[in-house]
Amino acid sequence: MNHVREVAQLLRDAERIVAFTGAGVSTASGIPDFRSSGGIFDQLTGRQYSGEEALSVPFFERYPELFFENYRRTLDFPDARPNVNHRFFRMLEEAGKDVAIVTQNIDNLHESAGNKKVYPLHGNATKWHSLQTNQPVDAKEVQWDEKGIAVDANQNRVRPDIVLYGDPLNQQIIWDAVQAIQQADVLFVIGTSLQVMPAASFVDEFQGRASILINQTAVPRMNRFDVVIQERSELFLEKVWSAYTSLTE
Q1: What stretch(es) of the chain map to CATH 3.40.50.1220?
Q2: Side by side, which strands form the sheet with 158-162?
């Protein structure tokens, strides 16, 4: 059966839908996958740090200037806007479906697209908190000191509300995300290599009717998915939406 029509029919019959998303859903919005960035080079030490190292707690604490240089280059995209991958699930929600987003992304684009239930496993780069008090800091108050380190209006250091390597995950968000996956009729897994743990293991909690993988490259254990699509997700989802609307008219 044609995969576009097959997925459209699955959506027509589903009540609860979960999208588990990774960096691939945001590349069409101009946000690169930080793991492909090559990390950051420190001219003082002559050392090249990987993307993972440059987003770790020890690196943030030891090299705040380099951390924020890398942050601004690879994670801070204030002009990015939601693309088809994000809007598709908002439209399903508007069509009456119970939709939840479980995302590994920190770019806030699912929220900006209008989805009401978003579980950001790795935090949200548009939100900040004070290192001194651990209290939230309005993003509009965040500025950069003479060293390029993020500070608040009182020049106290702040950090983005993202889960760095070495930080614990938010247990409430994990619980809610796993519950949503377990209760879903249809699970989409989109734009992720499924290699970041423990997040990647959450898709194994799915017990519903059909799981759909949309990713341009192969991922571990692809045979666990009922439908596998290896093409650009925004192109495929555009076709699915057209087929879905024709089925529901």
Answers
A1: 3-30+81-122+166-248
A2: 136-137, 123-130, 158-162
Structure pTM? 0.87
Question: Is domain 3-30+81-122+166-248 in CATH 3.40.50.720, yes or no?
Answer: no
Choose the catalytic residue: 3, 86, 110, 122: 122
Cα(170)–Cα(148) distance, rounded to whole angstroms? 28
Kindly give the confidence (pLDDT) of every residue in the chain, 249 residues in length, as a single tens digit, with 9 standing for 90 and above. 479 999 999 999 999 999 999 888 998 888 876 555 555 655 556 667 677 788 899 999 999 999 998 888 888 888 889 999 999 999 999 999 999 999 999 899 999 999 999 999 999 989 999 998 889 999 899 999 999 999 998 899 999 999 998 899 999 999 999 999 999 999 999 988 877 778 778 888 999 999 999 998 888 888 888 999 999 999 999 999 999 888 776
Query: Does the active-site annotation cover 122?
Result: yes
